[in-house]
Amino acid sequence: MYRFFFVCFVFLAPAFYGSPAKAGPVQDAIAAANSRDYEGAVSILRRAAVAGDVPSQSHLGAVLYFGWWTKPDRDEGLRWLRAAANRNDLKAQLVLARETKDRAEALNWYEKAALNGDPVAQERVGRAYWWGAGRPRDVKASIEWFQKAAAAGHPDAQLLLGVQYAIGQVIPRDLRQARHWFSELAGSSALNARTAQEYLATFYEKGLGGPQNYSEALRWYEAAVKGGHAPYAEFSLGAMYEFGRGVPANLDKALDLYRTAAFRQYRPAQYRLGVAYLRGEGVRRDLAEALKWLAFSVNWDLIDNVAPAVDKSVRSQFERDPELFQVLTGQLRPAAFDYAVTTVRDLAKVPGLYSQAKGLAAAFQPTPPPPPILIH
Fold it and tell me: pTM of the full predicted structure?
């Protein structure tokens, strides 16, 4: 049984503790555990912890709390972790922040760890101020914490800063800063890197925050597509192939990319497929397919005149910032929306076409998104 605890310590403890920089009780305890003297390892830590050695208190707390090398004793583990955390031990603060069930206490420990320079804690504190969760809502304080976390490489903070600098709602708009943070994140292995790749590609394609560069746009769109389930990148890459932006025009390849994004229920791609079938562009003209895809791109209820048109706030946002609004929301531009609605209603009046399109829609099986990855 203890072998299992030792393996857990070797592979999991570095997330909290890493290796001591110099010889001391903690390193002596690890050496004892490596020799399978688990009782001796715990004894070494306990003696040093009682004598007031903070790293030993922190390690002993984790060993007891998680049951590494010994039978778990969560109560005593928490006492030692709190002793170390109250003496400003960052690793103990992070363990307590993650493990406590009391949200207020967790936030207090995250705040202490944030002041100690930990980027994960800084992002958590920034989030608390952003939402007013456990702290009074303070966007300025939130952004300051996010900036610290982003500078230290925290991916969520980098993405949030990039978006906020792009839209300029709570901080002054700065497209160069937005491009900078998207660029920092796009080349990483973080889970949200694909989103940054899509945004960065758009910035290069449209010349936002710096020079226009189609080759860089293609590079980042393709990286996002390879990452999987990136309908905006698939649609945008399709548009580059359709119109020959940085690559030879290739309508067949464009339509393949549109189709993939359309099956992921990305409305602009569904709209473009509908228009292709309506006009016979790159595909055989098929009014039933056109009606199906155009109705998907807006809303099937529009055929019965019960769904609202694009509201004024959406229209005004598109007028203010059409490129960024589409990448951030995936909505149709107002002109395309109006065209789709008019065309759908006209096609629905053709005898037999509505029922045929409805049959095609009923058989439609969208590509499901990947399951979410839950992060503790």
Answer: 0.81
Do the beta carbons of residue 62 and residue 95 sit within 8 Å?
Answer: yes
- Condensed to tens digits (0 to 9), the pLDDT of residues 222-271 reads 999 998 889 999 999 999 999 999 999 999 999 999 999 999 999 999 99
Quick one: residue 307, left, alpha or beta (phi over 0 = left, psi -120 to 50 = alpha)? Answer: beta
As given in the structure block, the two tokens for residue 347 are 């096609």
Residue spans of the domains in the chain: they are 2-89, 268-366
173-197 per-position pLDDT tens digit: 999 999 999 999 999 999 899 999 9
Give me the long-range contacts of 88-93 (CB less than 8 A, separation at least 24). Answer: 88/112, 88/116, 89/54, 89/55, 89/57, 89/58, 90/116, 90/117, 90/118, 91/16, 91/17, 91/58, 91/62, 92/57, 92/58, 92/61, 92/62, 93/118, 93/121
